[in-house]
Amino acid sequence: MSDKIHPVDEMLPVPKLLALGLQHVLVMYAGAVAVPLIIGRALKLPPEDVAFLISADLFACGLATLVQCIGFPGVGIRLPVMMGVTFASVGPMLSMATSPEVGLLGIYGSVIAAGIFGIIVAPFVSRLLPLFPPVVTGTIILIIGISLMRVGINWAGGGLPTINKIVDGVQGAFPNPNYGQLQGLGIALFVLLFILGLIKWGAGFVANVSVLLGIVAGTMLATVLGVMHFEKVAAAPWGALVFPFKFGIPQFHTVPIITMCIVMIVVMIESLGMFLALGEMTGKPVDREALSRGLRADGVGTLLGGIFNTFPYTSFSQNVGLVSVTGVRSRWVTITGGVIMLLLGLLPKMAALVEAVPQVVLGGAGLVMFGMVAATGARILANVDFKTNRFNLFIVAISVGFGLIPLAAPGFFHNLPRELQPLLDSGILLCAIVAVLLNAFFNGLGSGKTAEADAASAASSAQHV
């Protein structure tokens, strides 16, 4: 028996941990602060309360990441994972925000209940692992990467093509005047080429932090061109405390709780795909017990979110792409990232500095990272038997088609019941459900019973690549 430390558990030197951890934070920061901004504005909270929501979110991001990566008895998958607020919860929470009888305290009550629900059902969700043979896993990871590409492309474009704003007293969606500007596209292209150059000609640690160096170089260019602004940095305070239940005691309403528990199931099934992807990338098998710990940590993170005035948490898929790009598999890197997020939550001025990095800078990095997630799915599918089992072709083709519906046609399901929207708005979840059902239909439920063995075999072979 070998006493060699697995790369996932390897403790790197502190300077490397700081640089690599900061790299993870920069990649996820824009997504991490987006949800509190959206919900805070929907609730028409004053600016100081919105700022507190952002600080609380960053603080809870750090806590949830530490729980997931350090691990405690029965909790935490102990893989390089960064935790952030799930976008699957945005739609339901916006509906709650506009309901006078629910409001912010009702949202927090539903989040706390959903966290407890997630902790309880985690072992049952983990039992779904045998339903995920390589043809299903590879397809889901492929659609995760494809879904994320939309995020990276919009970052490169300078945000979303349309923005919600109030004109003449009427709120509506209007074209984003900054979207697709040549200057922004040039900055994104510069970052992309810079990262690719470091990947090809850089060596060792330089190649590992290629995304961070690319973002730093892009930030410097954006500053010279006048695209990066520091007004919010100057106005932000140096320190702020994050304490539980700032807005009052949470309220518990039946329908919001049921809705958020459905969101929690969506989150956990998506996380299952993320964990399988990370197991493939890091060469560490993800068995049923590990899945239970990871999914339970999602529930704990969501519970902490409700307590600390924020929202449901999940594993951030963009950071999975970063693991693939850098090849750095140590969970101590994301633990460091979690500590940095904690500090950013307590130091608003530093958080504002990170937030000031233009989205076009992140866009150049996003195209590399998210494409690598899709490539990982393709690599898994390369080992699937398509030659003698033509049914596998149909499983991949139809599942990918369903997974692309929310991306290609966002209003496709708008006539279906509103309660189903959290399920139907997730291309990853649609792909997972269809892939599992088609695999069971074509290959039988028995085909997935060796999923854990397949995962262990794939992980073993990945260690020798």
Automatic annotation (TrEMBL):
Keyword terms of this UniProt record: Cell membrane, Membrane, Transmembrane, Transmembrane helix, Transport
Membrane topology, record value: Multi-pass membrane protein
InterPro entries xref list: NCS2, UacT-like, Xan_ur_permease
GO molecular function: xanthine transmembrane transporter activity
A Gene Ontology term for the protein's cellular component: plasma membrane
Nuclease among keywords: no
Pfam families xrefs: Xan_ur_permease
Compartments (UniProt record): Cell membrane
TM ranges: 20-39, 51-73, 104-125, 131-153, 182-199, 205-226, 255-278, 332-354, 360-381, 393-414, 426-445
Record-stated family: Belongs to the nucleobase:cation symporter-2 (NCS2) (TC 2.A.40) family.
NCBIfam families per UniProt: ncs2, NCS2_1, pbuX
Name listed for the protein in its UniProt record: Purine permease
